[in-house]
Design goal:
Helix 5 packs antiparallel against helix 6 and helix 6 crosses helix 8. The protein is globular. 56% of the residues lie in helices and 0% in strands. The chain has two domains: 81 residues, no CATH class; 127 residues, no CATH class. By secondary structure, the protein is an all-alpha fold.
Length: 221
């Protein structure tokens, strides 16, 4: 029987991984991703419904030859996985605050892109594909457009509906995660210019997005 776990019970790095998967699905051919504790494998990409995990007896037969016939391969994979996970350590509030303060000291260069003239779809696609510092800037720009039309008369939920009309292929859950991420990143980086955001070091879009609303005041923004 399927067991559901409340998100509040999960570690922050697991939540970030789940959010990343939600953001990946709309642009892929997958409709779902299943992670099985029994055999530790992801489903394979298909053009239809993702395959269900094999029966327990089949998994048992598969797992035995893999573990004993290729012990060194499994060992190398495990070590590589551990090293990959260690490469990104979630930044503390103090780390993020120092990064923002350092960026504020960078000279402001003239803006070259008019974010308000770009559509939700364009800004979302750019943000989804962007990496590293460019990802922070891309989510900042999407958040800027959202905040520019959100006021006392237009609620966040109504803006979300407008967004969904322009990007109909995005699932509701992925949309909620994307808009939440864009708003949080913009709220934190709103005082920075594009050039200053690109100068941010040692922090990622995921780090900034993970800052709880109640802790925003600690960043001196």
């Amino acid at each position: 029987m399927e067991r559901r776990i409340d998100r509040s019970c999960l570690p922050r790095n697991v939540l970030q991984a789940i959010d990343t998967i939600y953001e990946y699905l709309p642009s892929s051919l997958l409709t779902e991703i299943r992670i099985s504790k029994q055999d530790g494998s992801f489903c394979t990409p298909t053009s239809g419904i993702s395959p269900s995990p094999p029966p327990e007896d089949v998994r048992a037969k598969r797992s035995i030859p893999r573990k004993f016939a290729y012990p060194e391969a499994f060992k190398r994979t495990s070590v590589k996985t551990i090293k990959t996970r260690r490469q990104h350590i979630p930044r503390s509030l103090d780390d993020i605050r120092k990064a923002l303060e350092a960026a504020m000291r960078i000279a402001v260069l003239p803006e070259t892109i008019q974010e308000k003239d770009q559509t939700f779809q364009t800004l979302y696609q750019i943000a989804f594909k962007a990496r590293k510092n460019e990802a922070i800037l891309a989510w900042h720009r999407l958040g800027m457009k959202l905040r520019s039309i959100e006021d006392s008369e237009i609620s966040e939920s109504n803006v979300g509906k407008l967004f969904h009309e322009q990007v109909p292929d995005v699932s509701t859950k992925s949309l909620e995660n994307a808009l939440s991420k864009a708003r949080r990143i913009y709220d934190i980086t709103s005082n920075l210019s594009s050039s200053q955001i690109l100068s941010l070091t040692n922090v990622t879009a995921a780090d900034i997005k993970s800052v709880a609303k109640k802790n925003l005041y600690k960043l001196n923004i």
